[in-house]
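Translate sequence into structure tokens.
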Amino acid sequence: MKFPNFEKQELKDIFVTTLALGFIFTYPNLNPVIIVIYTIVIAFSFIPHELAHKFMAMKYGAYARFEMFKQGLIFALVLAVITNGGFVFAAPGAVMIYTQFKSNRGFHQVQITSRDNAYISAVGPGINVVIALLFLLISFLFPGGFMALIASIIVRVNVFLALFNLLPIMPFDGSKIYSWNKNVWFLFAGIVFVLWQVI
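Result follows.
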């Protein structure tokens, strides 16, 4: 697997989506410091999630890039406002996977099985769980103070992203895992749900 290339539009989409999610996660608290903190947390939670999808898709030979959904972004922003921050729709974009594409080496066509697709989908929530567990440990090692506060925010955001993306409905990651193997989905979603209850 080669290191993934990023198009300018792709980087722009990641940047704009990260800023939007920072606002969505903090609304209605519009304190600039809080927004900056959450935006940084989102950058270290949402971006690894999407890059994990991109890396895994490339491992299977596909072409993958993050694409912002303008309508989804607007919907997420409007929903945050009309619910006064009561509901977060954390899917204003996603890594799109192309099994037929052209490169400077010609035309490519790859076969992605349902298992491959499930693996590609699972690594996103999986990386969020790893990040959450890492910072949960940090919060135990450094109780109290600013470090513990930031760690707890990172844990909550990452567990939420994992749980949200594991919804077994299209186009979420959970739908691909569920359609491939229901038992794996129940196990994965169950672990994340328990973690959500614990934090």
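Note: The radius of gyration is 17 Å.
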